[in-house]
């Protein structure tokens, strides 16, 4: 399973670990993914999503119905 947020599309980034001697080794920055279930009142069903903490904040701000409508307009199957 890919480490990608279903709402925002955030993926792992790459960068460097930098030592005190300024030696650089590759590393990955992983998104803060969470598994959550949401009750969608308009559809009378639960929806399971794998999303980042930033997407949880977006859902708190705009509501699950607005976020699902935006995802469907982008062509994502829910």
From TrEMBL:
GO CC list: cytosolic large ribosomal subunit
Organism superkingdom: Bacteria
Keyword Ribosomal protein (UniProt): yes
Aminoacyl-tRNA synthetase found in the keyword field: no
UniProt keyword list: Ribonucleoprotein, Ribosomal protein
GO MF: structural constituent of ribosome
Region (Disordered): 1-26
Single Gene Ontology BP annotation: translation
Pfam families tied to this protein: Ribosomal_L28
Classification via PANTHER family: 39S RIBOSOMAL PROTEIN L28, MITOCHONDRIAL (PTHR13528), LARGE RIBOSOMAL SUBUNIT PROTEIN BL28M (PTHR13528:SF2)
Similarity comment: family membership: Belongs to the bacterial ribosomal protein bL28 family.
UniProt name for this protein: Large ribosomal subunit protein bL28
Species for this entry: Nitrosomonas ureae
Lineage start: Bacteria, Pseudomonadati, Pseudomonadota, Betaproteobacteria, Nitrosomonadales
């Amino acid at each position: 399973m890919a480490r990608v947020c279903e709402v925002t599309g955030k993926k792992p980034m790459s960068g460097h670990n930098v030592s005190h001697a300024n030696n650089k080794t590759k590393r990955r920055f992983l998104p803060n993914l969470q598994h959550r279930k949401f009750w969608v009142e308009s559809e009378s069903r639960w929806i399971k999503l794998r999303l980042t903490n930033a997407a949880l904040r977006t859902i708190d701000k705009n509501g699950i119905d607005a976020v699902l409508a935006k995802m469907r307009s982008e062509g994502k199957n829910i």
